[in-house]
Amino acid sequence: MRQRIAFVLAVGATTAVSVATALAATHTSSTGNLGRTIPDGGVLVQKLKVEQEGKVKDVNALVRLDHSYDGDLVIWLQGPGGVATTLMSQDGGDGEDLGTGPNNCSGNPTKFDDEAAEGIGSGSAPFDGSFQPNDFNTDPPPERGLVEFDGHPATGTWKLFVGDSEYEDKGKLGCFKLQIKT
Length: 182
Hints:
Blueprint: E1 26-30, E2 36-38, E3 43-50, E4 58-67, E5 73-78, E6 84-89, E7 110-112, E8 129-131, E9 156-164, E10 171-181
Parallel strand pairs: 7-8
Antiparallel strand pairs: 1-10, 2-10, 3-9, 4-7, 4-10, 5-6, 5-9
């Protein structure tokens, strides 16, 4: 969405200055507090309906979950049109959790953001802060980061997949949010 904003400064009756600015709409969609169990050795699918219209210019995924062994986790995001990208793949070794604080939407989530300074593979659990998705700059598609969604419609049902690749360690998804700029 483009919006023209004009600022006028009058000195006497003879001087005027006009400035145009392009503003993009950013909207956050949230699942609300979940507390959903991540199946041991299985995959949890969490849907999130986004009603924001327009084409994606930028998207960030925020995830708050507790898990006793992050090295077991494979997490990917799928957009409404079927485009998908890996957010993390068995990163974090024997560390625990994504984010800090309460395991719900009031906690501090891990933010997956292509513009972050550090990749998730270089970070350490509980991954407090912002990180580029798994191997953002090195993997061929479909693991090219959240930029994969740019130009696609924002509206529709997005899906977060949280896979636990091993048995014994357990976890719960507390909250999932998307920040989408159109």
